[in-house]
Design a protein that fits this description.
With 174 residues, the protein is mainly α. The chain is built from 8 helices and no strands. The longest helix is centred in the middle third of the chain and has 33 residues. This is Sigma-70 family RNA polymerase sigma factor.
Length: 174
């Protein structure tokens, strides 16, 4: 039985020294493996265990063979897993974010009515309201853009909102 210093030396020289080349080899040979570090660690553990319980004649060959087998096992497991996950996903309650056909039709009708209400406004009022509510411009920006006072902008917004509310009420929406 080898002494503790001999075991440490063997571990460093025959296993740890090959860690980085083994990791690079795995990543190059099997680019779709999920965790090369985990495979390298498991490989070192298995080869070390074999060294403790038996005789390893070629540690480097055993490292690469073990790593290859572990990588192939991982790839096989992950090739099967998506099918299992898909079966589980199909059973999950899913909230559909798309509106139902009746909701979509109702929303389209409301949008058409709102568009008609906005189109019924006088030109200046429609411009001011569109710049404020659709484009999000401030009253100051609208005033500068249209060459009118901020008080006029505020007045036009108020008038436009009242007219739209009246239009929608007449149509049965308010």
């Amino acid at each position: 039985m080898p002494s503790a210093p001999d075991k440490d030396r063997w571990f460093r020289e025959e296993l740890v020294a090959h860690t980085e080349p083994l990791r690079r080899w795995l990543q190059g040979r099997y680019p779709s493996i999920i965790d090369a570090d985990n495979i390298v660690q498991e490989t070192i553990t298995r080869v070390w265990r074999e060294r403790v319980f038996g005789h390893v004649t070629s540690p480097q060959a055993m490292l690469y063979t073990t790593a290859r087998n572990l990588a192939i096992d991982q790839l096989r497991r992950h090739r099967i897993a998506p099918m299992e996950y898909m079966a589980e996903i199909a059973d999950l309650p899913v909230f559909d974010t798309e509106p139902s056909p009746s909701e979509a039709a109702a929303r389209n009708q409301e949008l058409e009515l709102l568009t008609a209400a906005i189109q019924s406004l006088p030109d200046k009022c429609r411009q001011v309201l569109t710049l404020r509510k659709i484009y999000g411009l401030s009253q100051k920006e609208i005033a500068a853009h249209l060459g009118i006072s901020e008080n006029t902008v505020e007045s036009q917004i108020g008038n436009g909102m009242r007219r739209i509310a009246k239009y929608l009420a007449h149509e049965g929406l308010a």
